[in-house]
From TrEMBL:
It is a multi-pass membrane protein. This is RTA1-domain-containing protein. One of its GO terms (cellular component) is membrane. It comes from Lactarius akahatsu. Residues 323-341 have a biased composition (Basic and acidic residues). PANTHER family: PROTEIN RTA1-RELATED.
Length: 341
């Protein structure tokens, strides 16, 4: 028996909880240098050695990023209520947590040495992509079933979500192990070992998502080549009501997540206090912006507009048809019945 939409949401929330627990440890693993506290650390907050960011967060950049991400979260909430597709709710929840993480940077601007605010900010910023990735995993399986083209996926649609979510849970548990080693390290050698374990988990996670992206691209190619009817399913609709635009949106989302994942891998390869980790511009350009685009793209192309609320009973010939076309079909059917009588 295949899990229901509610069960899928519950599984996703459990996945996010796992990410929450595991991503908090690496945040605490950023061991600060063993130097005495200055008498007045706020004389030069930028060079204060107990400032985990390594810079003073800009309230202007924080305000812009927070407003944009929160706006996307609110619009996605509206789309959920209007169009359905509650199996995408994990992305909407992730958008809210991402906005919350960014908002914590207001606090870091005032108290740059606050470990509590920093860990909260780091936790939510790291947690949010888990939700975005999970939503993309679910979407591909749903899209394949809706088109009746699941045979073109290397992994069956009913298993592709579970397979890749379990992969992410595994990599995050490895990250938790690396974080725990770093936290409990009594020597620089053990601290470097923990950092390398954490980096290795990030690399595995990136490879996993790259494999998923290749599976998605192969699926689109094979539907285009071998499933002419499915490929042109919405050919009578306007371009923005064509399921292929949803496929484009998924592709754009994958690219954004991949860019952000590469950035995190390179960042950690230099260490928690490397030049990339201490650059606010790079954080917004290669972390926040790609993730913002990865969720923004679903605002005009919300999956619920293309995939019926219940794909198991919806007809592929009528689902996704524009209201005018559907009404014409219904009128035609009633006319035929009148003539038959």
């Amino acid at each position: 028996m295949q899990p229901t939409s509610r069960q899928r949401v519950q599984h996703t929330l459990m996945f996010l909880l796992t990410c929450l627990v595991s991503s908090g440890l690496p945040a605490a693993a950023r061991v600060l240098p063993n130097v005495p506290h200055p008498a007045n650390p706020f004389l030069d907050r930028r060079d204060y050695p107990y400032n985990p960011l390594g810079y003073i967060a800009s309230n202007t950049l924080t305000g812009i990023a927070f407003s944009l991400v929160l706006a996307v979260a609110l619009v996605q909430t509206f789309n959920l209520l209007k169009w359905g597709a509650w199996w995408m709710a994990c992305m909407t929840i992730g958008a809210y947590t991402f906005a919350l993480g960014i908002a914590c940077r207001f606090g870091l601007h005032v108290k740059p040495n606050s470990q509590g605010i920093y860990i909260t900010e780091y936790l939510f910023v790291i947690l949010s992509p888990c939700a975005f990735i999970a939503a993309d995993y679910v979407l591909l399986g749903r899209l394949a079933r809706y088109l009746g083209s699941g045979k073109h996926l290397i992994i069956p649609p009913s298993r592709i979500t579970v397979t890749f979510v379990m992969s992410d849970i595994t990599t995050f548990l490895i990250q938790a192990t690396g974080g725990a080693v770093s936290v409990g390290a009594t020597t620089m050698k053990l601290q470097r070992l923990g950092s390398r374990i954490f980096l290795g988990a990030l690399i595995i996670q990136l490879i996993s998502f790259l494999i998923f992206t290749l599976i998605f691209l192969r699926f689109v190619y094979r539907v285009h080549k071998f499933e002419h009817e499915a490929w042109l399913l919405h050919r009578e609709n306007r371009w923005y009501n064509d399921w292929r635009m949803l496929g484009v949106a998924l592709g754009v989302s994958c690219v954004g997540i991949i860019i952000r994942s590469f950035f995190r891998v390179v960042e950690l390869s230099q260490g928690f206090f490397g030049p990339i980790a201490q650059s606010e511009g790079l954080f917004y350009a290669l972390d926040t912006l790609p993730l913002f685009i990865a969720i923004l793209v679903y605002v005009p192309f919300w999956p619920g507009r293309f995939i019926p609320r219940d794909p198991a009973v919806a007809s592929r010939d009528t689902a996704g048809v524009e209201p005018e076309s559907r009404k014409e079909k219904e009128d035609h059917t009633m006319t035929e019945r009148a003539h038959a009588v």
